[in-house]
Design brief:
The complex is a heterodimer of chains A (112) and B (117). Chain A is an all-beta fold and 112 residues long. Chain A is built from no helices and eleven strands. Classes of the chains: A mainly beta (112), B mainly beta (117).
Chain lengths: 112, 117
């Protein structure tokens, strides 16, 4: 089935450093969604990207959808300890699949 | 944002018993509900997709007789783990989607942590 590869699996940063996680697919995606899961919590929806080349920002978070709609990235500027958690991308393949597929997630650890 | 509740949040049971987990969409009607399983520090594994009034669609490798799903109404889906064993211990999370389009947002419940002794 549809697979979304997400890298890196873990990322340690010092507070104030930037962070980026990437999602890649071999097939064209109809959309991509990003979620954040705090330790012990459940995934919380952050944003959805639908258009080719789309860029959206939420304060220090910047989300991008590739021109070919096969990859996406989440970039956090100047990380804070509140950014700690696992960030998942989820997508649906183009062509009618309404079943979401999640990436394996990137766990962000921020050291104060 | 939309709210999805899940009950119970935590359950401990003896091996061989059955456990029912409820997932409710509180402020919207969920056309589709998803059930996931998550192992520690792992991604969400989709178990099944349920649409109100029809049989659930199970992912490959998920035993439908083991994990019974009932989507009784547009606001309620239940997952019953039958004859639970220690290997069924996991974090079970449901999500609900209001529309039938791939672009419709999923809202996740808080999860149920199942421990089978």
């Amino acid at each position: 089935g549809q697979q979304v590869m997400q890298i890196p699996q873990y990322q340690h940063v010092q507070e104030g450093e930037d962070f980026t996680t990437y999602c890649n697919s071999s097939t064209t995606l109809s959309n991509i969604q990003w979620y954040k899961q705090r330790p012990g919590g459940h995934p919380v929806f952050l944003i959805q990207l639908v258009k080719s080349g789309e860029v959206k920002k939420q304060k220090r978070l910047t989300f991008q959808f590739g021109e070919a709609k096969k990859n996406s990235s989440l970039h956090i500027t100047a990380t804070q300890t509140t950014d700690v958690g696992t960030y998942f991308c989820a997508s649906h393949a183009s062509g009618g699949s309404y079943i979401p597929t999640f990436g394996r997630g990137t766990s962000l650890i921020v050291h104060p | 944002g939309a709210v999805v509740s899940q009950h119970p949040s935590r359950v401990i049971c003896k091996s061989g018993t059955s456990v029912k987990i409820e997932c409710r969409s509180l402020d919207f009607q969920a056309t589709t509900m998803f059930w996931y399983r998550q192992f520690p520090k792992k991604s969400l594994m989709l178990m099944a997709t349920s649409n109100e009034g029809s049989k659930a669609t199970y992912e490959q490798g998920v035993e439908k007789d083991k994990f019974l799903i009932n989507h009784a109404s547009l606001t309620l889906s239940t997952l019953t783990v039958t004859s639970a064993h220690p290997e069924d211990s996991s974090f079970y999370i449901c999500s609900a989607r209001a529309g039938g389009e791939a672009t419709d947002t999923q809202y996740f419940g808080p999860g149920t942590r199942l421990t089978v002794l």
